[in-house]
C-alpha cells in the first residue's frame, strides 16, 4: 500500500501549528517520530510518499533527522525498520540540494519528484545505478536480461545494478522484475 | 579601580580585534567600564559581540560591567531601534540616556538583536525574518527568489551552532546596508555570537588527539568549517557549516568565525581578508558573520 504524508501537517501536529519551516534537529526528531508513529499504526504501508510542497525552509540538520534517519531506521533489521520504501515529493530545488548533500554523507539515496514533476535520484548512487534506475523508471519495470540488452551491458552487471537499486530502496523487487517505486 | 575598555568609533568585525585586545588585557578584579561614548556606528557583529563581552565580564568579575552609551543621540537611537538595549540592560549597568519607548525597527534592520537559547528561538528567528528577507534579497540585492530559502537555512544553521555547542545562550542580528568602502554594494549581514565554550573546547574531546600538538583554536575552526567535523560522532552531524558554505558559494557570500584566539574566513575575490589568523587576543565563545552581497549588476 502507498501512503502520502504531508510533512508540513506532521510538523503542525508534532511541534507547532504555526510553523512552516523544517529547521533544527529537535524539530526533525519530532517530525520523524510523528511519521514513524503513523507507520506503526499502518503496518500495511510499504511505500511512503513524503510531500514537502507546503514546506518553506528546510535546513540540513532537520533534513538529516527526518529523511536520513527515516531511511536508516527503516532498513530491515535496523531500528524500527521493516523495509519501508520512501519517495519525496514537492521539493524546491534548494530543498533537493539540501537532501542530496545529507544523503550523500550517509551513503544513502532516495527517489524524488520535484515540483515540476521531474523524477530523479538524490544522494549517493553509482553511475551504473543511476543509468539502470532511469531505464527502470522509463519502462515501468525491468528484468536483468532486458536491462542488459537495452544498455548493452553484461548480464552480471545489469543484475548487480538492479540488486544495488533494490538494496538501497530505490526500486522494488517482485519475483524477477524490478519496479519503480511510483509504479508499485 | 575601574578599567576602561573603549568601543571603537566604528565597531565591526575588523575593529573588533582592538576591542577584544582591550577586554583580554583586563587584569584588575575591580569594575570594568565599556566606553561607547565616542562610537559612531556599530555593525550587527559589533552589537552582538558587545553583548558577549557584557555577559563574559559579568560572569568573570561577579558584577555587571558599566556601559556608557554613545554620546551622539542619533547613534543611541539607532542602537535602540536595533533592539540592542533590550538585551544589554540585563548585562550592563547602563550610563547615559537611552530612549525609553520601544522604537520601531530601523529600516535597515531585518532582525533586531534577538536572543537564541533553545531550538524554539531558532524557529522564531527564521519565521520572523523570512518574508522581509525575501523582499531585501530579491529587490535590493537582485538575487533570485530561491536565495531566500537558502538564506533561511543558513540563518538557522548559524543559530543552531549556539543551541548545540555554546553551552549558553547567544544573540543574532541581521542588517542590510551598503558596504561603500569594502565592496561598493549592498549587503545583508547576519551576525551570530555567544560567550560560551568556543569551538576548541566543544571539539576537544573528539578531535584534539587527532591533531596532537597542533591542536588549538585555529585547527578547531578549520575542523568545523572546512572539514565539517562535529563534537557528535554520528555521521549525519557537522552538516550545518557545509550547508552554509554551499549557500554562500552560490551567492558569492562570505563567512567568518572568530573563536578563542583565532579567526577563520572563507574569502572571496571581492574581499581582502586572510583565511586564518591565530594568536589573537582571547575572547570568549564564538562570533560568526555571514555576508551576502548584492548581485554585481545592482548599483549600490
Offer a concise description of the structure.
The complex is a heterodimer of chains A (184) and B (300). With 184 residues, chain A is α/β, with parallel strands linked by helices.
Write the layout of secondary structure elements.
The complex is a heterodimer of chains A (184) and B (300).
Chain A: E1 2-6, H1 7-14, H2 25-41, E2 47-51, H3 60-74, E3 85-91, H4 93-106, E4 109-114, E5 119-123, H5 127-139, H6 144-151, H7 155-167, E6 171-174, E7 177-180
Parallel strand pairs in A: 1-2, 2-3, 3-4
Antiparallel strand pairs in A: 4-5, 6-7
Chain B: E1 2-6, E2 10-11, H1 16-24, E3 31-35, E4 41-42, H2 44-61, E5 66-68, H3 73-81, H4 84-88, E6 93-95, E7 109-116, H5 119-140, H6 147-166, E8 170-179, E9 185-194, H7 198-211, H8 217-225, H9 239-250, E10 254-260, E11 262-266, E12 276-277, E13 283-293
Parallel strand pairs in B: 1-3, 2-4, 3-5, 5-6
Antiparallel strand pairs in B: 7-8, 8-9, 9-13, 10-11, 10-13, 11-12
Helix pairs in contact in B: 5-6, 6-9, 7-8
Key terms:
heterodimer, A: 184 residues, alpha/beta, five-stranded mixed beta sheet, two-stranded antiparallel sheet, 7 helices, 48% helix, 20% strand, B: 300 residues, seven-stranded antiparallel beta sheet, four-stranded parallel beta sheet, 9 helices
Amino acid at each position: 500500500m502507498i501512503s502520502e504524508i504531508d510533512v508540513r501537517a506532521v510538523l503542525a501536529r508534532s511541534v507547532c501549528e504555526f510553523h512552516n519551516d523544517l529547521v533544527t534537529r529537535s524539530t526533525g526528531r519530532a517530525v520523524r517520530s510523528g511519521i514513524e508513529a503513523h507507520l506503526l499504526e499502518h503496518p500495511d504501508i510499504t511505500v511512503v510518499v513524503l510531500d514537502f510542497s507546503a514546506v518553506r525552509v528546510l535546513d540540513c540538520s532537520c533534513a538529516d533527522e527526518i529523511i536520513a534517519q527515516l531511511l536508516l531506521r527503516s532498513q530491515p533489521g535496523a531500528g524500527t525498520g521493516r523495509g519501508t520504501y520512501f519517495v519525496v515529493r514537492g521539493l524546491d530545488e534548494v530543498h533537493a540540494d539540501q537532501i542530496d548533500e545529507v544523503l550523500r554523507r550517509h551513503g544513502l539515496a532516495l527517489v524524488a519528484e520535484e515540483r515540476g514533476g521531474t523524477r530523479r535520484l538524490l544522494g549517493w548512487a553509482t553511475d551504473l545505478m543511476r543509468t539502470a534506475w532511469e531505464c527502470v523508471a522509463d519502462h515501468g519495470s525491468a528484468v536483468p536480461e532486458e536491462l542488459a540488452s537495452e544498455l548493452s551491458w553484461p548480464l552480471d552487471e545489469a543484475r548487480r545494478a538492479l540488486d544495488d537499486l533494490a538494496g538501497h530502496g530505490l526500486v522494488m523487487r517482485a519475483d524477477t522484475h524490478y519496479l519503480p517505486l511510483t509504479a508499485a | 579601580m575601574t578599567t576602561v575598555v573603549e568601543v571603537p568609533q566604528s565597531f565591526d568585525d575588523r575593529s573588533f580585534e582592538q576591542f577584544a585586545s582591550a577586554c583580554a588585557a583586563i587584569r584588575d578584579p575591580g569594575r570594568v567600564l565599556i566606553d561607547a561614548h565616542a562610537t559612531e556606528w556599530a555593525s550587527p557583529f559589533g552589537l552582538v559581540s558587545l553583548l558577549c563581552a557584557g555577559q563574559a565580564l559579568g560572569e568573570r568579575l561577579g558584577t555587571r560591567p558599566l556601559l556608557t552609551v554613545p554620546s551622539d543621540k542619533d547613534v543611541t537611537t539607532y542602537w535602540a531601534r536595533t533592539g540592542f538595549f533590550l538585551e544589554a540592560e540585563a548585562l550592563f549597568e547602563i550610563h547615559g540616556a537611552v530612549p525609553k519607548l520601544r522604537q520601531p525597527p530601523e529600516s535597515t534592520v531585518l532582525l533586531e538583536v534577538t536572543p537564541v537559547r533553545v531550538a524554539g528561538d531558532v524557529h522564531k528567528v527564521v519565521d520572523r525574518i523570512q518574508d522581509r528577507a525575501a523582499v531585501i534579497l530579491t529587490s535590493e540585492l537582485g538575487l533570485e527568489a530561491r536565495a531566500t530559502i537558502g538564506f533561511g537555512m543558513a540563518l538557522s544553521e548559524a543559530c543552531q551552532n549556539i543551541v548545540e555547542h555554546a553551552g549558553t545562550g547567544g544573540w543574532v542580528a541581521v542588517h542590510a546596508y551598503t558596504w561603500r568602502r569594502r565592496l561598493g554594494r549592498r549587503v545583508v549581514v547576519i551576525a551570530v555570537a555567544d560567550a560560551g565554550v568556543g569551538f576548541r573546547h566543544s571539539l576537544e574531546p573528539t578531535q584534539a588527539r587527532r591533531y596532537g600538538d597542533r591542536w588549538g583554536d585555529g585547527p578547531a575552526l578549520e575542523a568545523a568549517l572546512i572539514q565539517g567535523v562535529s563534537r557528535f560522532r554520528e555521521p549525519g552531524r557537522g552538516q550545518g557549516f557545509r550547508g552554509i558554505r554551499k549557500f554562500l558559494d552560490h551567492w558569492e557570500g562570505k563567512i567568518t568565525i572568530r573563536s578563542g584566539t583565532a579567526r577563520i574566513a572563507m574569502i572571496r575575490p571581492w574581499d581582502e581578508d586572510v583565511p586564518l589568523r591565530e594568536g589573537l587576543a582571547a575572547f570568549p565563545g564564538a562570533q560568526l558573520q555571514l555576508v551576502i552581497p548584492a548581485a554585481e549588476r545592482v548599483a549600490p
